[in-house]
Amino acid sequence: MSDNKNPESTPEEPVKKKKKRSALPFILIIIGCAAVLVFALYNIISTQLEYKHSSDLTNNVIDAVVKTEPTEENNTDQEKENSFEYDHQAALAMNPDAKGLIYIPANDIKLPIVQKLDDASNEYYLHKGFDGNYSRAGTVYIDTNIKEGLEARHVILYGHHMGDGTMFSDNDLYRDADFYKQPGNDVFYIYTPETVQEYKIFSVYTPEATGDTYTINFGSDDELQEYAKKWKSYSFYDTGVDVSKAKRIVTLSSCDIQTGYKLRLVVQGVLVGEKTKDGKELSVEPETTKAAEEAETVQETESVEETVSQ
User: Can you give the residue range of the structural domain that contains 72?
Assistant: First the structure.
């Protein structure tokens, strides 16, 4: 019998079964994304809670140290803006480092001022509230190296640029000349234990974090006036403010977010007025200027007397 098998035929290959792809990688990816989302939400909520804590603390301090007085309808805008008293004893009772209060009418900001003289890092109040506990916003403070405090020729006040618009955040508005030119926006006030000082803003610019802007402890009024003239020329716009007779300058310094925190945003004001608590006007002219004017007056008087006697 003949063999019917085809010599050219080959046995059929077994059908390969498809391997099931594991769902584990996808599950891990979903878990990872969820973890990132939860972490992000946690950070957002934590940040907002810290903002609220800092804001509440500041408001509580202001409620304790600021005594508001009723204003009459016919009072000027400036009188209405300054219709409160600063209670320094109340501030000291809360914090012995209390030095005063800053009031910026342009954005209705009132903030307590402190100074830690034995702070080698100059950052003690960078993230400490007025109560001495941790605070994301910190407290406005005077440079620790300024031994005369708010009475120095050059006072530097440090404050954060906060994401919730508190502290010195609104100083960013001073980049705009139109904002500066609005009535009342060109001044700020410093309340000390004994007086209210008015400062006229003469320069707004963004210097390096460490540089000549932060020069302190000037030896004479002339040195301060040269300093003021120099940095006035760096302003984003010409304020037209005369600094040739500057007796005291206050620099408000905060981080500049527009340069990614690489620079500082600085708003500088020159002392143009000072009153005691009972309303007595004090001289804001430098002693050297007053002495020169008095000498000139004496010389003119003697000259007139000589002329008359002849």
Answer: 45-293
